[in-house]
Amino acid sequence: MHASKHASQFPFKLTCTTSGCNANQCRVGCCMHEGCIPLLICVSTLYFISIKQKVQVTVMHFSKKCSVFKVVLGALLIVALLQLLYLSFLSKLHGKQQRYKYSELFGSKKTSNQGEKNPRREHLRYSLSTGGIFDGSGQYRIYKNLIKSDFSTNQKPGADPRSHHLALATHTTINNLHHLSSLLERWQNPLSVAIFANGQDVKFATAFVYALSLFCPQVQALVDFHLVCHSGEMASFPEQDREHFAGLEEMGCSGVFAKLESHRDKYKNYAIGNNVSYPNNLLRNVARSGTDAAYILVIDIDMMPSANLHQQFVTMLMMREPAVDEVLVLPAFEIRHTRKMPATKAELVQLYQVGEVRPFYDELCPRCQAPTNYSQWVNLARRGSGPLEVAYTINWADPWEPFYIGARTVPLYDENFRQYGFNRISQACELHIAGYRFSVASNAFVVHKGFKVQGEFHSRKDEENRKNRILFSSFKESLKAKYPNSPLHC
Predict the structure, then answer these.
(1) For site-directed labelling of 378, which of 47, 187, 370, 486 has its Cα 20 to 30 A away?
(2) What are the pLDDT digits (tens) for 59-94?
(3) Which residues pair with 390 in a beta bridge?
């Protein structure tokens, strides 16, 4: 049955010439002998078997390759995941560093509460992010209101300036900023401070003013800080030097001022570095424009006004408001470094009579303050016990450079004057040509800490003075065009 079935499947003779060959092998095409007719079938079958085996091997090889690919792909995914985790860690770390810079930089735990926003810190962040503005010359960058006092923050927009009667405006570098402590203790009213910083001091000044506003309640309440630096520099917090600020919270306000004391002898304002000019008049204008007060007293930061001046002036305003073209001159003195600053006119006159206090610039430029008429002022019948009044009015004379309380509409200082010489004289000269009257206060004054003596100035003082003298000549010519109808001259 089987033989006939297979025979019907093949149209050729199913015989094999090789002895010993099983006929059935030939019939089913599995005989490999050369004489067997179905050899082709057998070879074909084996070929397809071989192909199948190769395909199986290829598939197995491909499977192995797929496994390797999966391993590599898995490894890449793991690496990518680790990178994402690392970047997330860096982001959180950066956030912590930022919080440290703006609150924990000085060791403060009180201000690092994550649930509470620190308005002072947020304002500082915003001020720094603006990049400041350039001055008229394009050489300086100004961060106005880098730190705002609680007093200024709470002032209503568009409020009548007369509701804020008198502010004090001053300027300095970081090496003289320590004077702010005693100045504020005496003044105890709104104060606008313009700071010039150069190089590394730009970052330190930013950090210090933030520390002062953070740890000193009086500074926080009353002082507005403005920062001026070269146009090529930008303010930011120090990235390094954490040790300079460590532990300030425990030391408090006194600790910050102690740190500032360490900078006091770094350099003089007019000897900051090579080709670095101290822009005193720009700073005065920045400090002036940084307050909304109706009247402003501009002094140097190492000077101090008489006690209760603010209240005395407010009381005077109730009885007599200065004319639009009038300034109230405060006689200026200087005192030995070893002496305590006098608070009242009676204390000042006592020290004046024994030579411990003398007119400002008495040794260096006696003519610069002579028009004040010190002998007349000292010998007034009333020596400080009564209300603030106008003692007498005098005409301006070259080279008088008085300190005065003036309305905010008083002409600004000419910002072309930098370094030493003619910076305040030029502004007094303009007031004179503009027709201002100089009225001397009866019992208010300002005192400079220490005698001004020859030999204590920087080496280029005389060279700068000569340069600014030439500038002053051209400045006076410009005033003729500005006030063409004025019969006065400097």
Answers:
(1) 187
(2) 455 555 567 767 777 778 888 777 767 666 654 554
(3) 441
